[in-house]
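Reply to dn_fold:

You asked what the input looked like. This is it:
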Amino acid sequence: MSAQPICHLYYATDRQKPQIDALQNLLDKHQLSLQLSVEQTIGKVNQKIKQQLSALHDDPVLWLDDKDKLSLIADGLSVAPEWDKLQRRVVSAGRKSELLLQAAKITADSIVIDATAGFGHDSLILASTGARVIMLEQQPMMALLLLAEQRRMSAQPNWQKLMTRLHIINIDARSYFADKQSASTLDDSIVDMVYLDPMFPEDSHQDSKTGKGAKVGKHMQVLHQLAYPPTLIEEVQLLQSAEDFIAGHNEQGGRVIVKRPQYAPVFAQRQADESWQNTALRFDGYFA
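and this is what came back:
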C-alpha cells in the first residue's frame, strides 16, 4: 500500500489544538487519503508569510486561522469556502435571481448530484431550494476543506438545516457514477439533476477576439494548483456517464447541467438541448 500524501497544516495558537483534532477526526471518518503534518506559525500570518509558506512547498498548504476557519494557501493566495459570505444569496435564491436555478428547475423534493463540488458555492444555492445535494469532490484536500466548512457552519443555528441537506463524498465523479454501491445508497430515490462544473482552461473565460468576459478569480487560480481541465476524451466520458447515471435514476427523464464561461466551447463537443446565460456564465442543459 502506498503512503498517503502529506498535507501541511499551519495554525496560529495552542487554543486551536481541539480544532486540529477535529480535522483529524474528519480525515479518519471519511477515509481521506491525506496525512496531516501540523506546525504552529510564529506571529500573524500576513501576505509576506503566505508567500513564504507557498515557497516552502510545491503543493498548496492548509491554514487554520485564529477564528478556526480553514483556508488553502497557494502562490501567496489564501482562499476558503467562506459559506457565510453567501448568506444573502442563499436566503434570496430563486429562479429570478440565480441563473443556475433557472437551469436546474428543482424543488424541495429533488435530489441533485454536484459532481464537481469545488468550494461548494453552487451546492449551497442548489440546497437553498430545499433539495438534497450530494457533493462529489475528487481532491482529498478540497474534500477536507468542505467537511471542515460544513462543521463550522453547522455550529450556527440559522445554517444547521441547510447543512443537513449537504452530503460530501471524496470521490471522482466517474467512479461514483460507475459504483453500484454508490448508486445503492440512493435506494429508489429519483435523481433530478447532475451538475457538472469541471475545471476549464484559464484562457476560456474571455472571448479570444474581443477580450470580453470574466477574469479568473483567486479561488479558481488556487484550484488550478490542484486540478487540471479535462481532456476532450475525459469530457465525453464524464458527460456520458452522468447521462447514463441519471437515466438509471429517473424514468421520467432528468437533466445534466454543465457550467461554462460564456465564451467557452460546448462541453464534450456536444450541443446543449437548452442554454441559460448572462454576461459571464453559461449553463448548458442536456436532457435525459
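The first helix runs from residue 17 to 29.
Hope that clears it up.
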